[in-house]
Amino acid sequence: MTIGSEDVLACRDLCVSLGGHQILVDIDMQVRRAEAVALLGANGSGKSTLVKALLGLVPISAGTVWLFGEPLSRFTQWQRIGYVPQRGQSSVANATVREIVSTGRLAHRRAFRRLSATDRAVIDESLERVGLSARAKDPIGILSGGQQQRALLARALASQAELLVMDEPLAALDLDTQKSLTELFGTLTSDGLSILVVLHGLGPMAQIIDRCVMLRTGHKVYDGPLEPSDANGTGGHHRAAPGPEPYLPDPGLVRPLDTGEGH
Ligand SMILES: Nc1ncnc2c1ncn2[C@@H]1O[C@H](COP(=O)(O)OP(=O)(O)OP(=O)(O)O)[C@@H](O)[C@H]1O
């Protein structure tokens, strides 16, 4: 089985079982270079599990994952991937914000070497980009939830990865911050960064998402582009939480149900 030369991430027939239950069933998907793909679906549909399986963080029961063209089992270039886990999964309360962001540079440093001037500049710029420069010396544990999320994003930015995998990165962030980070992600994808992002609602991210993959009870039920009318971001919540009725594989499902505009 071959994968596309532009694919930075791909999986075929991916199955995951946890605790005796099959969580993901025969998932095929890919993320291409410079593409931003949203992973959508109701609570418990398997989005986080899929992301973790793609990164080798949970065991795969069947199927294959490729990262940058290498099978997951042989992949070693983890510096090419930045991962922003779901909030609350990676807090180290006593570390300072700067220390957390500095760990994003680990893959670039040689063992036992201090941070280089380049490392420090990248860390400073990453803190600046998420608006946390003034909080750099604070222990991360005293920051608000949204500020902690920004620190995790800064760590991913500091890694200068080619693929960012993010699990609800904008949850708990105010709208202005969501917009400015979306703008930043848009600039980075224009420069060749690829993004796979778990979202509950598209919100401002609709502006930069090229394609969405929707899961329902562990099955992929949609993989396609956003409709042009989705670019205003109003449709995401409807898209992210399909109702209990049988799924119709119709891209119309990704159309906003209520744009709030009168007739
Ligand atoms: N370690 C585990 N053992 C057993 N079941 C698990 C485990 N991890 C996840 N699950 C189950 O897998 C299903 C999918 O969970 P997952 O966290 O992937 O969903 P999600 O789509 O990311 O949900 P949410 O939108 O609520 O974050 C859920 O029913 C969950 O209970």
Describe the 3D structure.
GO terms for molecular function: ATP binding; ATP hydrolysis activity. It is a single chain. The chain is an alpha/beta fold and 263 residues long. The protein has one domain (7-242): Rossmann fold, CATH 3.40.50.300. It has helices at 47-54, 97-102, 117-129, 145-158, 175-190, 236-240, and strands at residues 7-18, 21-32, 36-41, 62-67, 70-71, 81-84, 163-167, 194-198, 211-216, 219-225. The protein is globular and about 45 Å long. It starts with 6 loop residues before the first strand and ends in a 23-residue tail after the last helix. It binds adenosine-5'-triphosphate (ATP). Adenosine-5'-triphosphate binds next to strand 2 and helix 1.
